[in-house]
Each structure stands twice: as structure tokens, then as C-alpha cells.
Amino acid sequence: MGDYELLSKIKSPADVKRLDEKDLAKLCSEIREKLIETVSLNGGHLSPNLGVVELTVALHRTFNLPKDSIVWDVGHQSYTHKLLTGRFDDFYTLRQKGGISGFPKRSESKYDDFNTGHSSTSISAAYGIARAKMLSGDQSHTVAVIGDGSFTGGLAFEAMNNAGRFKKNFIVILNDNKMSISKNVGAFPRYLTTVRIQPWYIRVKKNTEKVLSKIPLFGRPISAFLRRSKSKIKNIVYKNTLFDCFGFTYIGPIDGHDIPELENALSAAKKINSPVLLHVVTKKGKGYLPAEENPGTFHGIGKFDIDSGEPISSHKGFSAEFGNTLCELAEKDKKICAITAAMAKGTGLEKFSIYHKERFFDVGIAEEHAVTFACGLASKGMRPVFAVYSTFLQRSYDQIIHDAAMSGLHIVLAIDRAGIVGDDGETHQGVFDVSMLNSIPNVTIFSPTYFDGLKCALNSAIYVCNNVAAVRYPRGGELYKPDDFGEESITYDIYGNKDCGKLIITYGRLFSYACKAKEMLAEKGIEVCILKLCKIKPIDPSAFDFATEFNTVWFFEEGIKTGSVARNFGDALLARQFNGCYHIKTIGDKFVKQMSVSEALHMLKLDAEGMADVVLEDLDRIGNR
């Protein structure tokens, strides 16, 4: 653990401004050491944060926070910002229950101007802030910091198109580290490469103006003429004026690790009374060799050994099992295509991208496009599978309704990280996909508990279903499986004594906890049966009939209550004149804060101990022990 001689004394951006220029390199070194130390213990987003250390220092030295506003896109590069805004002493709690969030939170600090967690939102939010300031007579500056990967999201372009008409200063910083989580794809990264490889344009322009200004009589008029002609000059040099077309003045590319150069560029951007795009080139993972060599691996990583860079624990998870299964199916079926939104590694599709390259499509951070693109493939007889985290699928709601379900097209949604994901907190919990998809006609949803169930569900989703089919599975690997359980079916499974009068219903990984709860209750002399749903939409009608044979029924669900399977199941029981007691235990209608998965499930009474407690409490209340 370092002594952090400079960093420990930083309590606000004002302290950063007071540092001598010669101390800045030491400060940046201490920041990187603190980032590596903390993330190695807590997990988190390391490589994006290591890449913006100098940029963040320069921002805090150039602007006057919190009067000036900075909106960090996604926010997984805001750790340095947190360290420089009075959160050093609590930084050890990063991503822990009750601790500092891994993303900007307005409730956490006055220096966090906007809550973020998903990509491509910063320009829209920052432009709204800038407009609000103008309406209230506030002359302070507003800055959006967005990565080149996030720029592939359509919302970023919508915001640029709208903000380009602004008649006041508004700054967008494009942090160009040449990659997002996966390698960047599409036309925009190619455009940035064109800009990046011609930095001589800026130098030539500056030197030419400097020389001309010293020529008596003719120098200044010629220089003024050239400034008026800058758009034509840049068009000749770049052969593309994308940012100018949006109405932004382009500055760059700037070395994102040269603080004096960054401060000069930021100061210049502040003086322009119109929208500005400052193009900053950084190195993702800078300062930590394992992260520099494998920036994708260290984008979001669990606990790891600092010396080797190796994860402390690793095990086979559902993502890898899904990827392997899809590869096997695609080997025999040339119609199967795989789609990812810049998450090939996270969703287990790296192997597919190698062995079935021609049928692998990384569309960038563009989930809406991914769904409609899949619909286009399906309309011509292909079998597209879109692998996406549950939390990011939320952005595709309209496309699933309008382009897929309403059109009767057969696409498969492989929903990764379904349920509680833990330390990333509210913005990343996968607890809305079931309620979202439950509201859409022509959608089938599978939710397996084990790897064999995943294979069975994926096969059915591809070959049995003829509409939108979703297969959802959690982060991590398999949990507890009783020795006498057997293999999962495709509809539902029954585990335990059918004549005991007490029934627990659940699905997904909660079945493992329910089995443990069953054992805990048995020790207290209480016998329960478990109905494990494998297909949660539509539910096999015989499952409802089975449940009506019990006196007391509990439904445990790792999702929000509104639109839940639990409520739908309850409605079906009422329609069958069920006379017993029916209890629902879900997350409720609320957001789940950051904490580990085990802590969250325990708090929500959705782990084994919680389920057993709920059953006991309800039985005591109704006098049915």
C-alpha cells in the first residue's frame, strides 16, 4: 500500500489547482497506484480509469467544479474524478455495500452532476444541463466526456445533431482509446483513425498563423482569410467534416497523457462561444502492463493479483457455456448467426467470432440496431441469436415490440447477467427483462438453472419456437444441485413430495436456494415441494393445475413485482378458483443498490435462509405449521 503523499491531501479540485506543474507526474503515479490497489481487492473497471488519469487532472485544473459541470459517459472512467473530489479516504469502499459507487452518483457528491451507468447518454444530459444554465443566466461551463466506443450508440449522434445548434460554449471531449470493451467496429472508428494519423494539420496551421502574423501589412489579413477558410482546408486534409457538419468546432487530436497540452486545449475550448469537440487520444490501461496488454480483460474485472495480473478466482460460467453451445449448433447449421453489441468477450462469443467469422456480427454499442438487424436477418431465413446483458436489453424495448414480435419474426435473445449482478449497482442489475418481455405478445421466455437446461432451452429457442424467444441466465456458474434432482425439462420440474400441502414455486438460479431452504425447513419438521419453472412464458397450463392441489404456495422471484411471473401465476390460480394461501416474494418495485450478489439476495430474503424464514413466518401467521 502506497503512502500517497500528494493524493491523500487532495480534498477538492481546488487542491489540484494549487499543485506545481512538477508535482503532477507524481500525483498521476499515486492515482494509478491507488486505482490498481483498490480494484485488485474490490474488482471494478480498471483499464478505462487508468487511461484517463491525466485527462481528469487537467479537467479539474482547468474548470471550476462544482460550478462547472462534467458528465462522464457510462461513468466507468470516473474513479480518478472521485479521488480528486474528496473521496480518497473512503475509496477503499468502492463498489461495496454502503460504499462509493463505481459510477457517478448525484446523491454521493456535489461534484457528480449526473447519474450514469449505460453508454451514450452524456452528450444529451450535458446539453440539457447547458441549456438549463443558459435559461437561468448561469455562465459556467458544461463538459461531456465520452469514449469512442460510446460514440457508436445512436443517442450520441442524436445529441450531437441537436447540440450543434447551441449558440453558447458547450464542450464534448471525445476520449479516443481506440477500443471499447471489445474491438471497435464500424465507420466511426475508421473516421477517427483518419483524423488520428494526420496530427500535422494542427501543427502546420499554428506555425503558419504564427509566421503570417509577423509579416507587416499583409500577414494579418492573410491569416484572417485562412481562418475564415478553415472548413475548406480541413475538408481537403481530412476528406470528411463530420463534426463540422454537426456544428461543432473540432480541436485535436490531443495527447491525452500530456497535462500541459491538455490544459492548453481545454482553455482554448472554453473561449469558443459555440459547441466544441475536443479529440483526446489516450491509452487504455496506461501505467499497468497487464492492463495495457489486455485492456478488454481489465475493462471490468474481479479481484486479481497485482504482480501477475491474474484473476484470484475463475470458474466456468453460463456465458462460456452459452458460447460453446452456440458454436456447436452453428457448426451443423449454417443459418445460425451471432450478434453482439460490443460485448463479444463478456457474452461468451469470442470463440464464435473466430470459428464462424462470416456469421458473427459486432454492431457496436447499439442494442436497438442489433434487434432490428436481427429481424432483417430473420426475414430472409437466417436464425439470428443476439447475446446481450439483461440491463442493456432495456434499450431495445421498442424494437422487440415493433420490429420483432409485431412482425412475427423469429429471433433469439440470449439474455446474460439476468437477475442480481452485484457490485455495479442499480444501473446494471438484470431485474427488469422478465417484466419487460412479459408485456409483449409473441414472446417465449426460458429461464434454466443449470448448464444442461441452458443447452436444452437454447436448442428449443432456435428450433422449436417460431416467434421471439428469450433464454435468460445469470452471471457466474452453476449453483447447488441436489443429487437426486436429475436433468431439467423444457417446461417445468417437480422436486419433493407432491402430497405435503406446501409448495415453493421459482425459476432460474433461485431454484438452488429453494432446494437449500427445503433442507433447512425439513430440519424443523416442515416438508415442502418445489415447482421449478423452466419456461416462464407461456407457462404450461398443467403447472397451474398442479399448484392448485396445495394449501399454501410461495412464489420467489429475482425480479421486480410489476409484470412479474409471480403475479401472472397468481392470476392464473385465481382463475382456477384456488382456495389456498398464495404468497409472493420478489424484489418489489424498487432499484437494488450496489452490494455483492449474496448480500443482495440475503437482504431481499431470496437466498436459502431468507426463503426458509419467509415460509416459517407465513406459516406462523396463518397457523399452519
* Global morphology: globular
Please state how the strands of the largest beta sheet are arranged side by side.
Answer: 7-6-8-9-11-10-15
State the helicity in percent bands. Answer: 40-55%
Look at the helices and sheets and give the structural class. alpha/beta
**Span between termini:** 55 Å
Give the C-alpha Rg: 27 Å
Query: What is the total tally of β strands?
Result: 17
Give a short account of the largest sheet: 7 strands, mixed
Tally of helical segments: 26
Percent of sequence in beta strands: 5-15%
Average pLDDT, rounded to a whole number, is 90
Uncertain segments: 195-202, 231-240
Family: Belongs to the transketolase family. DXPS subfamily.
Function: Catalyzes the acyloin condensation reaction between C atoms 2 and 3 of pyruvate and glyceraldehyde 3-phosphate to yield 1-deoxy-D-xylulose-5-phosphate (DXP).
Pathway: Metabolic intermediate biosynthesis; 1-deoxy-D-xylulose 5-phosphate biosynthesis; 1-deoxy-D-xylulose 5-phosphate from D-glyceraldehyde 3-phosphate and pyruvate: step 1/1
Subunit structure: Homodimer.
